[in-house]
Design a protein that fits this description.
The protein has three helices and four strands; from the N terminus they run E-H-E-E-E-H-H. The protein has helices at residues 16-25, 76-98, 106-114; strands at residues 2-8, 36-43, 54-61, 68-73. A four-stranded mixed sheet has the order 1-2-3-4. The protein is elongated, with a radius of gyration of 21 Å.
Length: 117
Amino acid sequence: MKVIIHNHGTALASDFEEIAISRLERLERFSIPIERVYVDVRHEVNPHFGKHSHRVTVTSHGAGPLLRGEGTGFNDLSAFDEAAEAIELQLRKRHERSKDIDRTTVRKYLSKYRDWE
């Protein structure tokens, strides 16, 4: 998975890139193909935004589904955590839907094998 971080407005925290890459690589456990992830970090200078002055948008591209998560916070890391959580929730939902769930009961399963005897 390739992670592309694009920054608007201000410098990022020194360890933001490492944290973002490690957090996004954990999403591969859902077995849904994602080739690229764009992380867009914006900082609003307007004091009206206050604690929500940082906005992070995480967008996935690839053979799998298009996923998008947004988060706002008082710094770029807290906003990124919120956006990554939204992406993880979407991936978890897709992963659960893709599971093959056999709804036959044990009684039906055993009766099939009793007929052979």
